[in-house]
Amino acid sequence: AQRLCVYCAVRFFVRLYNEDAARLSPCKDELCNMQARRVQDPINGLCAVLPQNNEVIIMKISENCYKLENTANPISPNVFCADPTGVEYNGRLYIYGTNDHQQYEAVGDDGKNDYVHIKSIVMLSTDDMVNWEYHGFIDIAKIAPWIVNSWAPSVASRVEADGKTHFYLYFSNSGCGVGVLTAEHPLGPWSDPLGKPLIYQNMPGLENCPAPFDPGVCLDENGTGWLAFGGGTPPESNTLHTCIPKIVRLGKDMLSFDSEFVSIDAPYFCEASELNYIDGTYYYTYFNDWQNRS
Fold first, then answer.
1. What does pTM read for this prediction?
2. Residues 83, 100, 214, 274: which is the catalytic one?
3. Active site annotation includes 271
4. Whole-number pLDDT of residue 198
5. Which of 42, 135, 180, 229 is deepest in the core (most CB within 10 A)?
6. With helix as H, strand as E and coil as C, how does the chain read?
7. Could you say which of 100, 214, 271, 274 is catalytic?
């Protein structure tokens, strides 16, 4: 019989940003009081202090968190995380995702996942695509208190004039817009450069985009940023060409626009825009709707 272990097929380290300086402190469960090390048993909670911004990360974790040693998936079986986006930096892949676990903490096993309690983004990383490190989450509500929620992030990085790599993390402000955070390291500290949404409902040019969320960002060969987004369906059922999703060229600061919003003709579009630029070609993917087209 195959032996089951917690968190990872081979090993899974609980390591938080700036491991040497971070200190783990007692939580409401005794098992929470652990050093950064290989996890051998299920844990009920974890809390840590990040020295960069002095924020406390608290997350209750399910005890039903086992997976087989001979598989690397799921990345984490007990931290509920969705809508991943990733960026490579110094040989590591950093993943950011919707923190569905925050919703679980709020409503419990029998609650409804309507996403209303999600106001943070999970961070994980790997250097071999097998062993993953959990870095806690970005407290979006504290950094950007104007948000409604934070879902479905999309990240890009670029070396700027100061010689440093800057990271731009776009996220859905519930279904009503898009926000953006910036940092000089993939684990932060993150800041809110605009103090308001980058995109919001009913802004000029978005008259036929009922839910301007789910951003997808990419950079072309010139370092120019492009952002796709949008969501919703028209009142008329079974509409093939809704032209609801939009694309826009970002300004040099990645925080403004350098073009008009242009509609994307994506058949049976619903949400979840993603944009990639590979070898001179732009690739746009999305989620289609649930309408019956039989």
1. 0.79
2. 83
3. yes
4. 98
5. 229
6. CCCEEECCCCCCEECCCCCCCCEECCCCCHHHCCCCCECCCCCCEEEEEECCCCEEEEEECCCCCEEECCCCCCCCCCCCCEEEEEEEECCEEEEEEECHHHHHHHHCCCCCCCCCCCCCEEEEEECCCCCEEEEEEECHHHHCCCCCCCEEEEEEEEECCCCCEEEEEEEECCCCEEEEEEECCCCCCCECCCCCCCEECCCCCCCCCCCCCCCEEEECCCCCEEEEECCCCCCCCCCCCCCCCEEEEECCCCCCECCCCEECCCCCEEEEEEEEEECCEEEEEEEECCCCCC
7. 271
